[in-house]
């Protein structure tokens, strides 16, 4: 294989129009979070995306003993402690028995002193339907405002959705949509999870895949996901292999084209995530609900790459700052 491409900050740079749209979007995020307790009918402010927490657990990342020598400086311990959050991507918490199968598997990696090394928000769908930063920001802003105005503003949402049609019609995207439809009733822990966008690994750029092992996809069909997960972790351990792909060529592994899969870049197994039974934490505690999985809080050598990814930085910051402010007001200074 050729040498991996090196990271360049130009992959992340927004133009002036995109920066202005981002400021408008940040205001809509803050407004949404401020009203999120009434939107979702709960007694705390929620996230602006992946609002529903199914479970939070302690885990461990065990490093593969046979990783290439070039990767060993990044994994200089035998194991790393993790905090893991399982979630649903919807903006609003819904008390339904069956949610849409848009799941999140967010991983927070700690160093030997308990400090933060990296956050990796993974999703069970490997692609993103929008490559245009402007279209994404306009759509996200329109959706936030629609929730705030009780469903008005649908025309703006439709206009932006129409612009996404060419990206959605890519071969990679259609193939993965069909696969998701076939698996829509499968157990949440039986899905593969992906980084969607690229991340730095030192000077290079990678994508991440987490592949569960020995999980029965038929567990808890048509049952409440929170209860199913709680029951599962009371009697079962969970393990998943962790793989990375390197970016060698922007034609085959594009950074800012998120609606296609990377090709001609083999998966390299770097380790295994394990969650022992009885490792669940209380997702309702204020400290766990206000956990941040912002990947831009990671060490510099593990941070996200790309324009769409760059938007997450400001979005996460606005969301967590507003949530923490509102939740302190709702539950008192000590919450």
Q: Can you tell me the residue ranges where pLDDT is under 50 for at least 5 consecutive residues?
A: none
Shape: globular
Give the CATH topology.
Catalase HpII,  Chain A, domain 1
| Helix and strand element order | HEEEEHHHHEEEHEEEHEH
Question: How does this structure look, described?
Answer:
By secondary structure, the protein is of the alpha+beta class. The protein has a single domain, classed as Catalase HpII,  Chain A, domain 1, CATH 2.40.180. It contains eight helices and eleven strands. Strands 1, 2, 3, 4, 5, 6, 7, 8, 9, 10 and 11 form an eleven-stranded antiparallel sheet that branches. The longest helix is centred in the last third of the chain and has 25 residues, at about 305-330.
Short précis:
It contains 8 helices and 11 strands. By secondary structure, it is of the alpha+beta class.
SSE map:
Layout: H1 16-39, E1 52-63, E2 79-88, E3 103-110, E4 116-123, H2 133-148, H3 154-163, H4 165-168, H5 171-182, E5 193-194, E6 198-201, E7 204-213, H6 225-235, E8 238-246, E9 268-275, E10 280-281, H7 286-289, E11 304-305, H8 307-331
Antiparallel strand pairs: 1-2, 1-9, 1-10, 2-3, 3-4, 5-7, 6-7, 6-11, 7-8, 8-9
Helix pairs in contact: 1-2, 1-8, 2-3
Descriptors:
335 residues, Catalase HpII,  Chain A, domain 1, eleven-stranded antiparallel β-sheet
């Amino acid at each position: 294989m050729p040498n991996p491409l090196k990271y360049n900050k130009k992959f992340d740079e927004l133009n002036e129009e995109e920066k202005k749209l981002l400021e408008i979007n940040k205001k809509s995020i803050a407004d949404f979070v401020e009203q999120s307790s009434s939107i979702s009918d709960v007694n705390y402010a929620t996230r602006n995306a992946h609002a529903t927490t199914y479970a939070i657990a302690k885990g461990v990342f065990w490093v593969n003993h046979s990783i290439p020598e070039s990767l060993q400086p990044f994994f200089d311990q035998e194991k790393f402690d993790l905090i893991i959050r399982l979630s649903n991507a919807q903006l609003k918490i819904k008390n339904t028995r069956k949610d849409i199968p848009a799941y999140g598997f967010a991983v927070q990696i700690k160093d030997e002193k308990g400090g933060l090394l990296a956050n990796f928000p993974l999703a069970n769908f490997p692609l993103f339907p929008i490559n245009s930063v402007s279209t994404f920001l306009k759509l996200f802003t329109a959706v936030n405002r629609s929730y705030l105005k009780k469903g008005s503003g649908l025309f703006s949402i439709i206009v932006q959705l129409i612009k996404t049609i060419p990206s959605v019609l890519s071969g990679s995207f259609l193939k993965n949509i069909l696969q998701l439809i076939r698996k829509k009733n499968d157990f949440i822990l039986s899905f593969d999870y992906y980084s969607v966008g690229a991340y730095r690994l030192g000077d290079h750029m990678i994508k991440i895949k987490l592949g569960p092992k020995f999980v029965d996809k038929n567990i808890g069909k048509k049952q409440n996901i929170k209860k199913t997960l709680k029951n599962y972790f009371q009697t079962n351990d969970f393990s998943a292999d962790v793989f990375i792909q390197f970016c060698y060529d922007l034609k085959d592994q594009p950074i800012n084209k998120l609606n296609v899969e990377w090709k001609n870049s083999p998966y390299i197994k770097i380790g295994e995530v394990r969650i022992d039974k009885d490792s669940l934490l209380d997702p309702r505690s204020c400290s766990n609900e206000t956990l941040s999985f912002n990947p831009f809080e990671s060490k510099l050598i593990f941070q996200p790459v790309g324009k769409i990814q760059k938007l997450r930085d400001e979005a996460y910051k606005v969301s967590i700052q507003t949530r923490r402010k509102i939740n302190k007001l709702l539950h008192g200074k000590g919450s």
